[in-house]
Amino acid sequence: MCAISLSRVWSLLPARYHCGYPHQGPPLGGGRRTGAFKQAIGRSRGGRTTKIHALTDHCGRPLVLLLSPGNINDIAFAPTLIARVAPITGLIADKAYDANNLRRLLAEGGAKAVIPSTTSRKQPIPYDRIAYRRRNRIERMFSRLKDFRRVATRYDKLGRNFLAGAMLAATVAWWLN
């Protein structure tokens, strides 16, 4: 076990740290700045953005909501969404969720995947076009959520406050549907 004295540590630090108090820096408690990723804020061409990932039932009522920074791809949170609900019988998703590992996860759970293939796939995987038409239900759910100004324009700094507002809007949407 190696121990370094405090005077040795001070000599390793740059000269600007020698002025002031010896215990400078952020607090070690829970009030420390955690960064934009933890608050689900990402940078993209449109500015600072947040994505809401949702899983709905067959009627379009939201079951699970998750937040992520806007610069993270959609499929990264798909396994987390699926794990948060009871076993599902099917999943209707858009081309952003076309990946072999997600299809394999759904097949292991006994769920039917209705996901169109991306144009970059050499061998397109067939899907049920009639069932895919029902994907508009989740689009209508997001439209209902965006009727609430707090969800449409994120004014909340903290991710938990924004998610609470989105959950409240989802509860109202569930009740109205």
TrEMBL record:
The chain crosses the membrane at residues 158-176. GO terms for molecular function: DNA binding; transposase activity. The keyword Transcription does not apply. Coiled coil: none annotated. GO terms for biological process: DNA transposition. Keywords: Membrane, Transmembrane, Transmembrane helix. The keyword Membrane applies. It comes from the Bacteria. It holds the Pfam family DDE_Tnp_1. Residues 41-170 form the Transposase IS4-like domain. This is Transposase IS4-like domain-containing protein. It comes from Rhodoplanes elegans.
